[in-house]
Amino acid sequence: MAAVKRARLPDPELLVDGEPVRCRLSYQWAGALQLTLCSVCPELGVELHSSYLGHPDAEVSTIATVRLRPGVRPEVTSDLRDAATLPVREARRRCLLDHLAELRDLVAEASESEVSIEFADEAAELVDVA
After folding, report:
1. Does some domain include residue 105?
2. What's the whole-model pTM score?
3. Which range marks the domain in which residue 114 is found?
């Protein structure tokens, strides 16, 4: 079994009501069938940890998430997705897009504000080759 590898990704540009908010993005992987993405927004006290697990011959991919925000109990969820729409090994950037969409929703809930998020192409390229 491969050792778990960890690396930083370029930080996404997170805007809350048009104002920039610092957000750190990292990823870990233990082989081609698993990917974990972690986002931390220290000023908001928000964290999102998403783990993706899938196989090209399987019908589904699994996503497990931990959502943390102030004043709310930690939320741990899991979801099954069609492996063709979220292929963990073949198109890892889709996992990144899924994670960032979930982060946008989490920050919007926590801040009760309008949120937008942009990421560097380099982040998608790095995730794809992990």
Report:
1. yes
2. 0.93
3. 24-129
